[in-house]
Amino acid sequence: MAVFVLDRRKKPLMPCSEKRARLLLERGRARVHRLYPFTIRLVDRTQEQSTLQPVRLGIDPGSALTGLALARESEVVDRETGEVILTRCVLFLAELQHRGHAIRDSLTRRRAFRRRRRTANLRHRAPRFNNRRKPEGWLAPSLRHRVDTTLTWVTRLRSLAPVAAISQELVRFDTQAMQTPEISGVEYQQGTLAAYEVREYLLEKWQRRCAYCDAENTPLEIEHITARSKGGGNRASNLALACVPCNQKKGSRDVREFLGAQPERVKRILVWAKAPLRDAAAVNSTRWALLNALKATGLPVEIASGGRTKWNRSRLGVPKTHALDALCVGKVGAVEDWLAPALAIKATGRGAYQRTRLTARGFPRGCLMRRKQVHGFQTGDMVKAVVPSGKKAGVHRGRAGVRASGSFNIQTPQGVVQGVSHKHCRLIQRADGYGYSFTQIANQKGERVQGHASHDALSLLGMNAGVSRAN
Q1: Rounded to an integer, what distance in angstroms lies between the CA atom of residue 241 and that of residue 151?
Q2: What is the DSSP string of 91-128?
Q3: Contact status, residue 433 vs residue 348, Cβ threshold 8 Å
Q4: What does the DSSP assignment read for 309-353?
Q5: Fewer CB within a 10 Å sphere, N or C end of the chain?
Q6: Which spans in 251-317 are helix H?
Q7: In whole angstroms, what is the distance from residue 97 CA to residue 346 CA?
């Protein structure tokens, strides 16, 4: 994975390779500016003295995870056909994990506490549910969080790399084109992309498993719940996914006859076939707000559907991940260097105002400390702990959880290390509301293998220094 580079005025330059970054640091021409994502700052060069190439930021919005991909674009002419192929070379991959469900649950608990207080202490208070108006374009806090977090990382990546254009997957499924052919023409409805739209919708709806036996990691086929010979149509509500044995065994029989001994499963299939996609609904609610926010950046924004993304991914032989989906958004002819680790970014928040811990029934069970920092550390800081002896002897790097006693918990990629003294800890990056780790790499066959990149940027470059004061 490439290393971000800033000039001496903190303006973004073209990312460089890990080897070149290591040489610049060893020769004293650069300083460590940030660890996650790893960024160096040159001390002898400005943006005017460098050559910038077009860099595109791909975004694959999701309800739980959003894929981000930075790629350098170039046009390559095919020697045989003379066709100009738009090629994207991967510079950076990331998967942003949202906390919308946690925000929703927190608001639900707060609403219940307030309702109890008001009904117990203010029984004669007039209702207030009809005297409040929501502004135009209002989104629920859990949905607004998805837009704001994605936009925050778009702004952050623009400050680290010379992004010239953005590609966004606007719609997960082009349902209008599937249901109404006149919107985009018969050629589109009956062409290559139509099948990918339907398949992607069904894979997301049935969670990539057989509807009749819950088989996973096996080839799945599109199956009609009510056979076409019995009057069933091709609407999405009549389609399901089935493994090859179940599809052949069911044939044209009715699902109630096929699963007569499993009435609960029959009931679940019939209900689930007509159920809407909750996560897809969240994405559809935020897609236009995100698009308008991206357009406000002043960069050209390319939009595409999820079916187009899957078609590109299948055509180019790229495995299924959120980060690689972002790489395949929009018009692309070829991709290079996609076999790279993705930075997993988890939105953790910056703390809470609530100081009292509560039980499930709302009774207090403990209080949090009133100060945020302990011995110069706070929860969320990235630290490096060198424990010389004892059960926890070794080097631990990760996100710290502070305690008033000075004994910290460190969240590492291998698990939580509890009870590490603050005397053994050294700060390597201040808390910014996110946790970081590297995901595994997918090879050409789609198998997950451990990558060559380290889980810690300092060990990657063989450095022992912390973050520069400029950060």
Answers
A1: 35
A2: EEEEEEEP-HHHHHHHHHHHHHHHHHHHHHH-TTPPP-
A3: yes
A4: HHHHHHHHT----HHHHHHTSSS-SEEES--S--EEEEE--S--S
A5: C
A6: 255-258, 263-274, 278-295, 306-316
A7: 5
Structure tokens at 399: 């996100």
Question: What are the residues facing 166 on neighbouring strands?
Answer: 57, 301
Q: What is the DSSP letter of 12?
A: B
Going from N- to C-terminal start, the domains of the chain cover 1-49+440-471, 365-431
- Rounded Cα distance, 138 and 142, in Å: 12
> Token match 């201040």: residue?
430
With tokens 């088989």, the residue in question is 215
CB 112 within 8 A of CB 359: no
Contact 35, 24 (CB under 8 A): no
The enclosing H or E element of 20 equals helix 18-26
**pLDDT tens digits for the chain (471 residues)?**
789 999 999 999 999 999 999 999 999 999 999 988 999 999 988 888 888 898 999 999 988 899 999 999 988 777 777 777 889 999 999 999 999 888 988 888 888 888 777 777 666 666 666 667 788 888 989 999 999 999 999 999 999 999 999 999 986 555 444 444 434 444 444 445 556 667 777 887 788 889 899 888 888 988 888 888 887 887 777 888 999 999 998 888 888 888 888 888 888 888 877 766 666 677 778 888 999 999 999 999 999 988 888 889 989 999 988 999 999 999 998 999 898 889 999 998 888 888 888 887 778 888 888 888 999 999 999 999 999 998 889 999 889 999 989 999 998 888 899 999 999 999 998 999 998 888 765 544 445 444 433 344 544 444 444 444 333
Task: Please answer whether residues 249 and 273 qualify as being in contact, where contact means their C-beta atoms are separated by less than 8 angstroms.
Answer: no
Q: Show Cβ contacts of residue 35 under 8 Å, excluding neighbours closer than 6 positions.
A: 382, 428, 429, 456, 457, 458, 467
Q: Tokens 């610049």 label which residue?
A: 24
Please tell me whether the peptide bond between 141 and the residue prior to it is cis, using omega within 30 degrees of 0.
no
Pick the CATH number of 365-431 from 3.30.70, 3.40.50, 2.30.30, 1.10.890: 2.30.30
Tokens 């700052």 — which residue? 41
Q: Residue 407 belongs to what H/E stretch?
A: strand 407-412
State how far the alpha carbon of 347 is from the alpha carbons of 53, 58, 101, 279, 412, in Å. Answer: 31, 19, 12, 18, 16
Closest by Cα among 211, 214, 205 to 224? 211
